[in-house]
Design a protein that fits this description.
heterodimer; A: 423 residues; Cytochrome Bc1 Complex, Chain A, domain 1; 7-stranded mixed sheet; globular; B: 425 residues; alpha+beta; 6-stranded mixed sheet; 5-stranded mixed sheet; 44% helix
Chain lengths: 423, 425
């Protein structure tokens, strides 16, 4: 087993790989009472069209999420919940655009619980009646999403930003999509994507990593898997332009909201990899639009806004920034945002203060078993390896590079969405 | 873990020393009885006090100082638990052993007192610019309740149950309550906070607690001695006839809320046995009786929850679903409870529920917020500490759970009906 030392943080990640390709990452904290195991499958809601060899497959939207639901069935009238309930452990799962994650958390018997996590996720027990019964439940979940204005506005905005990307569709699928999903769809995607080579296991908390690795290896060696089909997601070419530059909609919000989305092609950056794009952008946005910014402070003081937040994310070939502003003054806000976005900058002392604070808070990331687990997952999904030198990377961020980053940052392609209250 | 209480005459400091965490958390808790009229203005106060101070006149200045203190966090919250109202100021910071700066510990620990003891006030009035920012934020927060179907349904159901019960009072109040607040009466409220509220400071972390106590004693100005003890229990009336209310909404789903009174249970049963009963009934996720009946067997909903309000002696069951299924869901919930009262659950299920609750308690020992919270309620209401509760869980038997079931009396059935175009998907 390999030990990855996290430089400057005094932490170790244990890692190994089973002969069938399943990768395992572990972080041990002997001071806590619990363990947390997650099994991630690199298959999410955007994989609706994929190729295996020369053959192209298309499935209804929402299949990844549907599979996550029915995956808990292990046999006739037997579910994984039954097992974990008896063990006094808690289990759950979620589906994102890119991956599906299954979890178990407990205080006793980490080995048995982790092995069962592998067993139920890798077990392909599906029947027509299971699929049909689950449709009512998922339809209600999808309708819950329709009742949540924040969910509705996020996907409306993604729809206005992307012309072809599947990220514009809700992860659950609509009630109509759910109705269209069949047992055959479920079996197809399970057999294609749920392969150990396409999964990774992360265990954090209080346990013996050697005991866990031994048990995982033994468990995986006992199971037979057909060779991984190496499916390739098929995606349409996405235009550099936003899908819709401006739209106003009425929705169940009590206060008017303005959303500004900015679409930036990743390849417009010549000198920055994804990690550095994220790090520099994070500092820049915080300095200009965060709680310490003059801009936000002025908007609040002039009562032009009551709140404002932002997020940024990489969606395939695009970096997207999304602002949400609670304001009644559309024109004034859009004018002021334009001015700041067209002249975005950061002062050197602000840059250094924020950098110093970020380095200090890295220490805190290695405390909570859930947070560490999530952080390992995102390292693997975003960078395909553990960022062992993250502290050094932070320390090496410098003001001159930030200036270069600002020069390469193109914030011109914008999509505005205005959300008016229904009444 | 080592707990110590320091009596500082006009306030207490409770220290919990542990090397489990890399952060230290301090909560300055002001407490008094719930009052429908005054909760909104204290909430306003809590918000404005953490947004600005004489030394940090704008929110931005506070944010910059916290960043300089290595991303410490500081905020205010108000809360209502049964009949107890608390206004808390919370500081969380990196343990000093990770920070090279010599005066870091003193600086970071002094910060909340520099802020709350020195508000940005002129002529006994809070600064109007900050006042207006907070006012707007609170008004929007109040309005935003209407955006969440389940939150709105539970609040409405409690109001229909008894609008004069503290269980139905809203910490934020209504828009009219906020409109009545002025920079001047807010300052009077600030003075009253120190005059009338009890004050307890809880700190958990791996720091030199003696030094911390000395810093707090030096920095915290709070001179009025208060001796009032607040009983947390709310006495909710039991109805002879169940109240049934149906109201229209524009949501896609309908929401059904059923409120039960819990009567004649002793403290141990309320502290431990009822949690097991509720776990089996509906708070235990997908293995619970309500989930099984409504979700697994009948595909009626995505989730159903039963919420135990111990100090209000209420059990609330809430489910969102298609409007055509509301009547069926109500029947199934009643059936489920009837089966529980009749003891239709096995020793094995009890054992598994105990195991799961024990895990939840052990899990809370890994979290500084839950640990601190446990000491807070141990002090306010003699709630047993986590290890004691784990022992008590193991002593509960089926008879105790049957008593929990028998203690339930249906009070209110509230239906928030979906819009007219939303039926039968």
């Amino acid at each position: 087993m390999k030990e990855i030392k996290l430089k400057g943080l005094d932490e170790t990640i244990y890692t190994d790989e089973c002969s069938n390709g399943l990768k395992v990452y572990m972080w041990v904290n002997k001071k806590v009472n619990t363990f947390y195991g997650t099994l991630s499958v690199k298959y999410g809601s955007i994989y609706n069209k994929f190729k295996v060899g020369n053959k192209t497959y298309e499935t209804p939207k929402g299949v990844a999420h549907f599979l996550e639901h029915v995956k808990f069935n292990e046999g006739k009238d037997v579910t994984a919940h039954d097992f974990f309930f008896k063990m006094g452990a808690d289990t759950n799962a979620f589906t994102t655009f890119n991956y599906t994650n299954y979890q178990v958390m407990g205080s006793d018997n980490p080995k048995d619980n982790i092995i069962h996590l592998l067993d139920f996720v890798q077990n392909g027990y599906f029947t027509k009646s299971i699929v049909n019964n689950e449709k009512g439940i998922i339809t209600e979940e999808a309708k819950m999403g329709e009742d949540d204005p924040y969910n509705v506005m996020l996907f409306k905005h993604l729809d206005n930003i992307f012309a072809t990307y599947e990220h514009k569709y809700v992860i659950t699928g609509t009630p109509k999509d759910v109705k269209d999903i069949t047992l055959e769809n479920i079996k197809l995607v399970f057999n294609t994507f749920y392969h150990p080579e396409n999964m990774f296991l992360v265990v954090t908390g209080n346990f013996n990593p050697y005991e866990i690795m031994e048990a995982v290896r033994e468990n995986q060696d006992k199971k037979e898997f057909k060779p991984f089909k190496s499916p390739v997601r098929v995606r349409e070419k996405e235009s550099k332009k936003v899908n819709k530059e401006y739209e106003e909609v009425n929705i169940n919000v009590t206060n008017k909201k303005i959303k500004i989305g900015i679409k930036i092609p990743k390849n417009s950056f010549k000198n920055f990899d994804d990690l550095h794009k994220r790090l520099y952008l994070s500092l820049l946005l915080k300095a200009n639009f965060g709680n310490t910014s003059d801009f936000k402070n002025e908007l609040l003081e002039k009562e032009l806004i009551s709140n404002m937040s932002y997020m940024y994310e990489i969606f395939d070939d695009y970096l997207v920034i999304m602002f949400t502003i609670d304001s009644d003054y559309t024109k004034e806000i859009l004018d002021r945002f334009k001015k700041v976005l067209d002249n975005i900058f950061i002062e050197e002392n602000t840059f250094n203060r924020m950098k110093k604070a970020n380095i200090a808070s890295l220490i805190l990331e290695y405390e909570d078993v859930e947070l560490v687990n999530t952080s390992i997952q995102s390292d693997i999904l975003q960078y395909d390896h553990i960022l062992a030198d993250i502290k050094e990377i932070y320390e090496n961020l410098n003001y001159d590079e930030m200036q270069k980053f600002i020069k390469e940052l193109n914030l011109k392609e914008r999509s505005i969405l205005i959300l008016n209250p229904l009444n | 873990m080592e707990y110590k209480k320091f009596d500082c005459t006009s306030f207490n400091i409770h220290t919990i020393k542990t090397d489990k965490f890399k952060t230290t958390r301090m909560e300055i808790i002001f407490s008094d009885e719930v009052s429908k009229e005054s909760m909104p203005i204290y909430t306003f106060l809590c918000d404005i006090l953490t947004d600005s101070a004489k030394k940090y006149p704008r929110r931005k200045d506070i944010a910059i100082r916290l960043e300089e203190l290595y991303k410490a966090s500081f905020y205010g919250v108000t809360n209502k638990v049964g009949n107890l109202f608390t206004a808390s100021f919370i500081l969380e910071f990196i343990n000093p052993n990770f920070i090279p700066e010599k005066d870091y510990f003193k600086n970071v620990l002094s910060f909340p007192f520099d802020v709350i003891n020195n508000p940005y006030v002129k002529n006994k009035e809070f600064d109007i610019t900050n006042f207006n920012i907070v006012k707007r934020r609170l008004l929007e927060e109040i309005a935003s309740v209407k955006e969440s179907s389940d939150r709105l349904a539970v609040i409405s159901a409690l109001q229909k149950m008894d609008k004069n019960s503290p269980s139905s009072y809203k910490v934020l109040g209504d828009a009219e309550d906020i409109e009545k607040i002025t920079p001047s009466n807010l300052y009077t409220t600030y003075e009253n906070l120190f005059k009338h509220f009890n004050c307890d400071i809880f700190i958990i972390g791996n720091i030199n607690m003696e030094e911390a106590v000395n810093i707090i004693k030096e920095k915290f100005v709070n001179r009025v001695i208060k001796t009032k003890r607040v009983s947390l229990l709310v006495n909710n009336n039991i109805r002879k006839k169940v109240l049934e209310v149906k109201e229209k909404s524009s949501f896609v789903q309908s929401t059904l809320v059923m409120i039960y009174n819990i009567k004649n249970l002793d403290k141990d049963a309320k502290n431990v046995a009822f949690h097991i009963f509720n776990y089996l009934l509906g708070s235990g996720g997908i293995s619970s009786k309500l989930y099984q009946k409504l979700r697994t067997e009948n595909s009626l909903c995505y989730g159903v929850r039963s919420l135990y309000l111990k100090y209000d002696e209420l059990l609330i069951i809430e489910v969102s679903l298609d409007k055509s299924n509301v009547i069926l869901a109500e029947k199934l919930i009643k059936k489920c409870l009837k089966e529980m009262v009749q003891g239709d659950f096995s020793e094995e299920e009890i054992r598994d529920a105990k195991k799961n609750l024990t895990f939840s308690l052990k899990f809370s020992k890994d979290n500084n917020v839950s640990l601190l919270n446990n000491y807070v309620f141990n002090y306010f209401d003699e709630l047993p500490l986590i290890d004691e509760r784990i022992d008590l869980i193991n002593k509960v038997n089926k008879e105790d759970l049957l008593l929990c079931g028998k203690s339930l009396v249906l009070n209110t059935i509230y239906i928030q009906d979906a819009g007219d175009n939303n039926e039968g998907n």
